[in-house]
Amino acid sequence: MNRKKSAGERAFDVFNIILLTFVGIVCLYPFLYVVLASFSDPNQFIKHDFAILLKPAGFDLTAYRQVFTKDIATGYMNTIFYVVAGTMISMCFTFLGAYVLSRKHYMFRKPLTLIIMFTMYFNGGLIPMYLWVQQLGIMDTRWAVLLPTALSTYNVIVLRSAFDSIPESLIEAAKMDGASEFTCLTKIMIPLSKASTAVIVLFYAVSRWNEWLLPTIFLRTRTLFPLQIFLREILLTSSSESILATAGDATNVTALAEIVKYATIVVSTVPILCIYPFVQKYFVTGMMIGGVKE
Amino acid sequence: MEKKERFFSRAKRDLRKNRGIYLMAIPVLAFYICFSYIPIYGLQIAFKDFNLGAGIWGSPWAGFKHFQSFFTGPYFWRTLRNTLLISLYTILVCFPAPILFALLLNEVKNKAFKKTVQTVSYLPHFISLVVICGIIKEFTQSTGLINAIIAFFGGTPETMLINPARFRPIYVISDLWQTIGWNSIIYLAALSGIDPTLYDAASVDGAGRFRKILNVTLPGLLPTIIIMFILRVGQFMSVGYDKILLLYNTNTYETADVISTFVYRKGLIESNFSFSAAVSLVNSIVNFLLVIVVNKISAKVSETSLW
User: Fold this and answer.
1) Which chain B residues are within 8 Å of A127, Cβ to Cβ?
2) Where are the beta strands (DSSP E) in chain B?
3) Tens of pLDDT along B65-124?
């Protein structure tokens, strides 16, 4: 270990640091750019010749006044509902599923495990799901968003491996004292796997926050739309002019529309970025548990 | 006959003894039946002519008609080619990159620097896909950031997302950006699990740093790499089709339209339910077979497998 580094190794170290710094900048800068652009003055933003921004081009908050529309407010409220209600439903099912899979001595363990694992590799796809949701009569209701994706098999498996690591003797002792299986789950398994539970809650919450395709397919009523659908309209499918409620006469309309888009991204992403530093390590733990071979 | 009876009496006893477990399994099983297995059973509309009045179960049978019309139709080669090429390019670029990234991070001695680069590199993974695609669209339009950089180096700016020749590079490069950090986690975990005495032994044998990477680190990573590769190949036919749905447009169908996006358009926009279910079924079956084959091969070659 105390060996002196050769010239080649030192050169490698320098090169390595430079390369990794570059990767870091490439991952971070686009978001920084979005934030800087969102505070820029439209007229100056369109004019600045080299695109790299290190500070806002001018300073203007017109865009932010345009961002808080009724759509965004509706979207935010709905998304919060889908995240909270969806995650709670998901957790109930996931706890049960993980517990059942983690128990060792019952007769139908194998077929049950097989039924659950199979869904990781094969599914009916979009069309039968769409037709089935229609036949169930929940099309265009909040249930259509909440139910079909309530359980992720991957998350069940992750939580199962956490339950597996809890000593069997604890369960046996509790059962001697007359505890039911359900009590074992709520009083022993869940309290003893808080970290993994937190990870799974975050996994569900984030995928709820991000989902857009199934809500697009299952919902028609605008008042039920989650934030992501409105974001898609603003960022990807609408024309510049239609974004603006009122276009100022002096400002460049195209540039302002652009900046409104950037401001929309900031407003819709800030909650994620605020909690990101705190929850990031839980995700990493979750990834590692999930990566353990089954 | 007697065996069957014994099975039933055993099952009965077990159901009584483990009543609690089975009661808890009911909601979970109900979920999987309702939202996984009934849709799988509903795939039968691929062999039927779906009409709204009769529903999935009542529509008349149509045999392999829809499969035939897909295989002989004008979009078969286009969607197949795009699916295979986009998937192939993505694997070629985005599969090795996180491994390399993890190896490089592993060589960094400064803890704070390593931690910072890691944290920052996970960031794109947490931003919603809609926002990511919104950013891609903004940056690649003729006045966007990427075009400005290209112009700086003497290129001509263009609205890239309407140019079919640009679609696949944009898709693959943005995918690299989205996944390089996040996908390296699993390799970093594997790296920290390598027995340190192996490195010491290699040092004693006079191995330099690069030798150690080659002869200790890489072999230690191999099982993880194989598992990740199987999982990745298992998604070969599904591509990132929600990302394509957000990024493509009629101008770029030629290079961007994959089987899954074709299924989405035919089924949910044009209401050709049976036809698009047939296309989707072909896709799923190929995908499923791929997982099995790759898993078999890897079990033979390296004794590492998923099941």
Assistant:
1) 45, 263, 267-268, 273, 276-277, 280
2) none
3) 999 999 999 999 999 999 999 999 999 999 999 999 999 999 998 999 999 999 899 889
Number of domains in chain A: 2
Q: A76 and A194 share a domain? A: yes
CA distance A127 to B56: 11
Q: ipTM score here? A: 0.88
What are the chain A neighbours of B21 within 8 Å (beta carbons)? 100, 103, 106, 181
**A212 vs B130: CB contact, 8 Å cut-off?**
yes
Task: Find the domain containing A46 and state its range.
Answer: 7-68+238-291
Q: How far is A192 from chain B (nearest CA, A)?
A: 19
**CB-CB under 8 Å, A126 with B264:** yes
Q: Mean pLDDT over residues A230-249, rounded?
A: 73
Interface touch B27/A131, C-beta < 8 Å: no
Q: How many CB pairs under 8 A join A and B?
A: 254
- Whether B120 contacts A28, CB under 8 Å: yes
Which domain CATH number covers A130?
1.10.3720.10
Same domain, A16 and A114: no
- H or E element that contains A62: helix A62-67
- Tens digit of pLDDT for each residue in B221-274? 998 898 888 878 877 887 878 999 999 999 999 999 999 999 999 999 999 999
Statement to judge: residues A44 and A94 lie in one domain: no
Residues near B224 by beta carbon (within 8 Å), at least 6 away in sequence: A291, B186, B187, B190
